[in-house]
Structure formats: C-alpha cells, structure tokens
Here is the input.
Amino acid sequence: MTHGKFKIQRGFTLVELLVVLVIIASLLSVVLPRYIKSLDKAEESALKSDLATIRISIDRFYSDKGRYPKTLDELVSEKYIRHIPVDPMTKQANWQPIYINMDGEQVVYDIKSNAKGVSIDGSNYQTW
Here is the structure.
C-alpha cells in the first residue's frame, strides 16, 4: 500500500522484537533448570535400578550355585541377566566389581558405578 511517495511497511519494530526475546529468555531461565534437574533425576533412577538388577542377579547366582560369579559376564552366560547394562552416568558398561576371596578364588561379591561426581542428594555415585 502506498500513500503518495512513501510506502507503508508492515512488521514489528525492534523494540517489540526485543520485548518478545526478553519474555522468551525469562521463560527459559525458569523452565530449563527444572528440565535439566528432571533429566539428572531420571539418570540417577536408572543407575539405582541397574545397580539393583545386577546385585539381585549376583545374589540369585549365589543362591542357586552356592558361590559368587567370577566375573559379571558369568551372570550373562549363565542367563541370570540378558546383558550387562550400560551405566547411565558413564554411558558405558564399565561397572566396578567388588571382589572377595572365597575358597581361594576372587569372586564378584558386589558392584559399584565408575561414575564420578555427586548425586542430587549430595552422595557420591561411587558409594551407591
């Protein structure tokens, strides 16, 4: 649309665009930390669940065989678990087996995560 020599341009002014950007940034500053915290909680829940699954498998192995497994892979080969789960914190299946000496053999008694750092509640992942 033109009025004489001048063309009327329609659109947003710079101030309007800046106001919208400030509103979006404010909303993100509230929502983003909550979203990240919920992701951390989900990873921690997965870690707790995986540790419990492996520990239960070790206990069942002991209950059935009267001994602890020599390695975590023995839990898989003897079909106590389908596979060694990936540690959700390290993104690898690099668990830290806790060995004890039983009848002159080193056997897996427990399992820990190799994840560095602390959880939301302040406890160290490696102590779980």
About this structure: The chain has one domain: 15-116.
